[in-house]
Structure to design on (660 residues):
């Protein structure tokens, strides 16, 4: 009897309550709208407008060339080869970064110790240093009379120096060093958000630690891994000076071609077309990633 | 504005007392106001050179100077398109100047003004073009490690690639200009007889030397690191970088034979905010005094004011790429050929690199 009365009461208050919520939400919507104006406007001016200008230029805007000249020129095998190599470089760097970052991030997210602080300091310091300085420091370390080769020769492990730089090995070392902190920093919050109770529950029910990791921890940390991979891949895709220096001419990327198109050839249409192709590839990969894990889940709080 | 004018008037009076000689040196037509934005290649070396060229330009003329980098034709093109040219004087490489000229981006040089300050016979006529006056000449030379080759290094590019006579590691610029010129000279062509270049032939020559090049250098600053660490034994290197390292005690040596010179030019963009004052600076920088100071500071470049070579010590002259004895067998980059063929050559160069 009391229950029914209470239910009726709730039912009768509901419509009124909703109207109160509506007034509040209308106000809130208005507030949201005004607060969002500045960021939306700056997005439109700083991001969308330049991309539209780029699209316009890629179709011959601002020059007297035919609309599809730029895209047609991109069909030459050289550009496909450069693009293929750049994609391979970005993919491999991302995968190696993910494998190396995962244990570091796990340590930083789950183990409380002084060591964490030092790992964080090391990561952040390497983020602050300039790209070029870090690239050159790898030359000092990896070259024929560098730190690594000197050590190997002095210990008698080898009598001929290894070729560690001015080839693809050097390129990957340099790129991964620059990209690793981005991956670690994206992984940590995702890992911290995982409730340790899940693992404890699984362990107490008799699952092996390996199984707990495979079936619970890894899937729950996946959004962080995907977010980090997206960030690292996009950055790696745009690299050109590190591969150009550390590759010793053996790792030309598509971005190097864009630089030449702008600085040496003054062909802004071709440069814009090439950039548009890179943009479309990046967007396509973003959508593919979204299908795999859901970009919206990135902003979820892990497993909770 | 009024206060500013009053201040510069006061400054002029003070300077008139302090530096009467400087004030007398300058014709009245060189007096001016405002600030010139000079676009150069940046870096401490370039800044030093510019300071030497400027001398007391500001004190003598009342025109202030401010520097920015890096010369870029595409940027200038966009600036001109949106009607907002920011640069007054730009230090363009030869083919950049021609590209800018082709796009109608440059102001003609006021030679009447220039010759009113610097006698015409002091200047190399080859470096006075309608839209630009020679600034520096950048040299690429054969260099080698003296510890590896104590009996002397290669005397030309044919010997440079002779792996029997000179076994060792080699480095060249990762750039078709001057890699193609070097390849052609390595195939036996003479300096100065390379243009018009047969592109197929040049790439065939490149195929021949390609496997002998251990590393391709992307940035000029890499030469310092390579020399300091003896990473390579033979280089087709930047003269300025190599000489600076030799001066610092590194055991390297160079030859000027078959050196490759690329000329740069002072230019004034069309629509420059202070185009009139810019003409004065360009003329000013052609003076013997500035050229001499620049060469004493950094003796690695060629100069437009050739009268300067008579006033330098023989020791300094022996180091200069532009001095008559060293310039004898120099190969000059043909900027016009590169402008006409750059599109084809650069694409093919990337193709060549990406196949290796």
């Amino acid at each position: 009897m009391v229950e029914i009365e209470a239910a009726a009461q709730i039912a009768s208050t509901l419509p009124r309550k909703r109207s109160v919520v509506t007034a509040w939400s209308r106000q809130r919507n208005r507030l949201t709208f005004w607060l969002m104006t500045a960021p939306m406007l700056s997005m439109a001016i700083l991001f969308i407008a330049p991309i539209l200008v780029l699209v316009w230029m890629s179709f011959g805007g601002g020059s007297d060339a035919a609309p599809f000249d730029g895209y047609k020129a991109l069909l030459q095998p050289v550009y496909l080869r450069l693009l293929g190599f750049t994609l391979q470089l970005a993919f491999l760097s991302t995968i190696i970064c993910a494998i190396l970052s995962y244990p570091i991030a796990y340590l930083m997210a789950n183990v409380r110790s002084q060591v964490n602080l030092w790992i964080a300091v090391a990561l952040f310091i390497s983020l602050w240093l300039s790209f070029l300085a870090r690239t050159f420091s790898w030359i000092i370390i990896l070259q024929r009379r560098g730190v690594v080769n000197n050590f190997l020769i002095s210990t008698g492990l080898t009598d001929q120096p290894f070729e560690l730089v001015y080839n693809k090995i050097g390129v990957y070392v340099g790129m991964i060093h620059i990209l690793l902190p981005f991956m670690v920093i994206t992984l940590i919050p995702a890992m911290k958000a995982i409730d340790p109770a899940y693992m404890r529950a699984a362990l107490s029910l008799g699952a092996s630690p390996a199984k707990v990791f495979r079936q619970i921890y890894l899937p729950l940390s996946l959004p962080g891994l995907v977010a980090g991979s997206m960030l690292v891949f996009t950055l790696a895709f745009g690299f050109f000076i590190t591969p150009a220096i550390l590759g010793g001419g053996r790792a030309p990327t598509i971005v190097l071609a864009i630089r030449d198109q702008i600085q040496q050839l003054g062909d802004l249409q071709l440069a814009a077309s090439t950039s548009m192709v890179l943009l479309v590839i990046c967007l396509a990969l973003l959508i593919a990633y979204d299908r795999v894990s859901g970009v919206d889940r990135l902003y979820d709080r892990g497993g909770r | 504005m009024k206060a500013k004018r009053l201040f510069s008037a006061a400054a002029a009076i003070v300077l008139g007392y302090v530096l009467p000689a400087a004030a007398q040196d300058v014709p009245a037509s060189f007096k001016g106001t405002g600030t010139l934005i000079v676009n150069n290649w940046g870096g401490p070396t370039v800044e030093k050179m510019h300071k030497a060229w400027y001398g007391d330009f500001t004190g003598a003329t009342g025109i202030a100077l401010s520097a920015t980098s890096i010369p870029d034709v595409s940027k200038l093109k966009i600036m001109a398109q949106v009607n907002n040219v920011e640069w007054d004087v730009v230090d363009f490489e030869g083919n950049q100047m021609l590209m800018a000229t082709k796009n109608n981006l440059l102001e003609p040089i006021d030679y009447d003004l220039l010759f009113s300050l610097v006698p015409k016979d002091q200047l190399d006529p080859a470096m006075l073009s309608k839209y630009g006056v020679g600034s520096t000449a950048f040299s690429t030379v054969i260099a080698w490690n003296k510890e590896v080759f104590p009996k002397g290094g290669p005397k030309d590019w044919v010997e440079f690639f002779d792996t029997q006579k000179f076994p060792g590691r080699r480095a060249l610029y990762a750039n078709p200009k001057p890699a193609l010129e070097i390849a052609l000279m390595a195939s036996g062509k003479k300096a100065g007889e390379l243009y018009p270049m047969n592109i197929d032939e040049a790439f065939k020559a490149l195929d021949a030397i390609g496997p002998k090049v251990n590393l391709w250098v992307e940035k000029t600053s890499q030469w310092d690191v390579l020399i300091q660490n003896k990473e390579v034994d033979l280089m087709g290197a930047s003269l300025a970088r190599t000489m600076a390292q030799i001066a610092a005690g590194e055991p390297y040596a160079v030859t000027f034979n078959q050196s490759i010179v690329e000329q740069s030019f002072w230019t004034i963009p069309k629509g420059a905010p202070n185009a009139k004052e810019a003409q004065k600076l360009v003329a000013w920088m052609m003076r013997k005094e500035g050229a001499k100071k620049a060469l004493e500071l950094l003796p690695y470049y060629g100069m437009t004011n050739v009268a300067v070579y008579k006033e330098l010590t023989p020791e300094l002259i022996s180091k200069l790429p532009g001095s008559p004895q060293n310039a004898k067998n120099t190969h000059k980059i043909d900027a016009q050929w590169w402008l006409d063929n750059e599109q084809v050559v650069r694409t093919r160069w990337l193709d060549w690199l990406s196949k290796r």
